[in-house]
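F.,

This is the one I mentioned.
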C-alpha cells in the first residue's frame, strides 16, 4: 500500500472556474494521490476548454500515485449541464453532495485532506437551502468548533467573526467567543504548524484599539481582560493592537499569527500582497481542509484563462500539513 496521502478535491461551482482549476492541477506532478469528487463529464469539458489533455479515471478507492495528465474521479453527477459564467441553482444539491462526500471521506480516513475550489453561495441559497459557506458546512458536518484562517508564506490571519454584516460585529465580540477562538488557533498552530509556543497578535475592534475607551469600550471591557486571563495561563498574546499599524515589518517580527476581529479588517492586507499565494484553512476540524482565497470568477469561467496559483498553493499546503501530521488514509 502506498504511504502517499490521498487528497480529495472538490470543484465548487460547476459554472465557475473551479473545474478548470482542477484540470490545471491535474497536469502537475504531486507526491500524493488526487481524487476529484465531482462530475467526470464536467472535468472533461473543462479540459477541452483549457486545451488540456486529461485522462479521467473512475476512483477505485485504492491508494495510487498521481500521474500528471490523469485524474481519478469519484463521480457525482450534475443535475443539469453547466453553462460557464451562469450558475444554476438546480446544481446546488450536486455541490453539497461533493462537500459531504469529501468531509465524510476525511472523517472515515479515506482522504488525508480536502482541497476545495470556490463556490457560489447565492446559487445554493436560491435553491432554498440555507448555506453560508464551506467553513460553516464542514463545521456542522464534523460537529466541530472552527476558526477561519487565511495564510500566505509570510502571514497568517485568523478571524474572530467571518461572514457578518459590519453592524453585527460588535455584539459578536464576546469573551467566551474570543477565548474559544484563541484556544483553537493556539492549538492548531502547535499541532498543524509545529510551533511549540505560538505568538498571536490580537487586533482591537475599534480605530486605535479604542484609544483608552474614547473610541469604543470593547477593548477595555472584553478584549483586554480576556488576554490577561489567557496570558496568565501561559499563552503568548500581543494586543489588542491597532489594526492600522499591526502589519508593519517591526510588528510582524513579534508574532506568528494575527487574530482579526472581522473579515475585512485584515484580509485586504493579506490579499493585496499575496493574492495568488494565500490559502484559506479551516482550523478546528478533525481533518485538514484548505481552499483558494478567491471566488468563482464567473467572468473568466469557460475561457481557459483562470490562474491556478491559489489552488496550487492550497494543494501544496494541504499536502505539507498531511505529511507533517502523518495523515494517510486507512
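My design for it:
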Amino acid at each position: 500500500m502506498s504511504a502517499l496521502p490521498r487528497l480529495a478535491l472538490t470543484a465548487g461551482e460547476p459554472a465557475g472556474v473551479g473545474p478548470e482549476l482542477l484540470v490545471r492541477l491535474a497536469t502537475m506532478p504531486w507526491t500524493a494521490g488526487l481524487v476529484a469528487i465531482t462530475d467526470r463529464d464536467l472535468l472533461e469539458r473543462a479540459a477541452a476548454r483549457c486545451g488540456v489533455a486529461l485522462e479521467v479515471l473512475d476512483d477505485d478507492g485504492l491508494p495510487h500515485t498521481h500521474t500528471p495528465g490523469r485524474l481519478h474521479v469519484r463521480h457525482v453527477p450534475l443535475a443539469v449541464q453547466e453553462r460557464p459564467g451562469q450558475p444554476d441553482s438546480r446544481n446546488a444539491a450536486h455541490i453539497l453532495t461533493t462537500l459531504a462526500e469529501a468531509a465524510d471521506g476525511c472523517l472515515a480516513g479515506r482522504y488525508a485532506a480536502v482541497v476545495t475550489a470556490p463556490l457560489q453561495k447565492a446559487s445554493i441559497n436560491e435553491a432554498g437551502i440555507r448555506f453560508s459557506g464551506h467553513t460553516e458546512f464542514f463545521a456542522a458536518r464534523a460537529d466541530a468548533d472552527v476558526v477561519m484562517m487565511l495564510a500566505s508564506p509570510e502571514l497568517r490571519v485568523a478571524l474572530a467573526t467571518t461572514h457578518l454584516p459590519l453592524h453585527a460585529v460588535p455584539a459578536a465580540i464576546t469573551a467566551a467567543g474570543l477565548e474559544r477562538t484563541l484556544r483553537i488557533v493556539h492549538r492548531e498552530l502547535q499541532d498543524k504548524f509545529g510551533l511549540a509556543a505560538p505568538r498571536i497578535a490580537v487586533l482591537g475592534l475599534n480605530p486605535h484599539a479604542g484609544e483608552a475607551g474614547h473610541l469604543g469600550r470593547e477593548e477595555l471591557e472584553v478584549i483586554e481582560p480576556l488576554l490577561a486571563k489567557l496570558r496568565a495561563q501561559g499563552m503568548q498574546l500581543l494586543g489588542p493592537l491597532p489594526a492600522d499599524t499591526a502589519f508593519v515589518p517591526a510588528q510582524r517580527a513579534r508574532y506568528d499569527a494575527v487574530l482579526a476581529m472581522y473579515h475585512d479588517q485584515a484580509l485586504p492586507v493579506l490579499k493585496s500582497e499575496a493574492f495568488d499565494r494565500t490559502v484559506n484553512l479551516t482550523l478546528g476540524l478533525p481533518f485538514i481542509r484548505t481552499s483558494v482565497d478567491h471566488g468563482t470568477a464567473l467572468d473568466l469561467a469557460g475561457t481557459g484563462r483562470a490562474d491556478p496559483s491559489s489552488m496550487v498553493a492550497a494543494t501544496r499546503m494541504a499536502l505539507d500539513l498531511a505529511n507533517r501530521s502523518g495523515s494517510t488514509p486507512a
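The longest helix spans residues 175-191.

Talk soon.
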